[in-house]
Amino acid sequence: MNQQQTAPYQQQLLDMRAALLAQISAQRGGTISRADAAADHFGQPEDSRAQVATERELEFALGERETAELAAIAAALGRIEAGTYGLCIDCGASVPAARLQASPEALRCITCQETAEQAHPA
């Protein structure tokens, strides 16, 4: 893909990153880390140990998801800069435009993604 073809995807990725960072900031009440935000409401005297453990696990899971999403967006932006965006990282075939529009951070064509998911089920 040339720069003109990748420009809309690049903008979509930048918008996704900005929206995710804004969501993270709003959920935390500012720019504090998720761990700091979690510490603010963990361990209240009225909370049961099970409730605190569940909330802590949820906070860490959300943090991992957010980190993974930001990393995927950064990797896609890196592929745009490197000139490899839109090519499957496994087979090298072009990733269909419809797939990139739906998921601009996609690494693989649909066939290779299905193979990867079957090899490493969630």
Any chance you could write out the topology, listing elements then pairs?
Elements: H1 3-28, H2 34-41, H3 49-82, H4 97-102, H5 110-119
Helix pairs in contact: 1-3
Describe the structure.
With 122 residues, the protein is mainly alpha-helical. The protein has helices at 3-28, 34-41, 49-82, 97-102, 110-119. The protein folds into two domains: 3-85; 87-122, no CATH class. The chain is 69% helix and 0% strand. The longest helix is centred in the middle third of the chain and has 34 residues, at 49-82. The mean pLDDT is 86.
Order of helices and strands: HHHHH
H/I helix tally: 5
- Content of β-strand: under 5%
Number of domains: 2
Q: Could you estimate the helical fraction of the residues in percent? A: 55-70%
pLDDT averaged over residues: 86
- What's the story with the biggest beta sheet? none
> What distance separates the N and C termini?
31 Å
Q: What would you report as the Rg, rounded to the nearest angstrom?
A: 18 Å
Stretches with pLDDT under 50, minimum 5 residues: none
What's the number of extended β-strand segments?
0
| Global shape | flat
- What structural class do you assign from the helix and strand content? mainly alpha
Give the oligomeric state of the chains in this entry, treating copies of one chain as homo and distinct chains as hetero: single chain
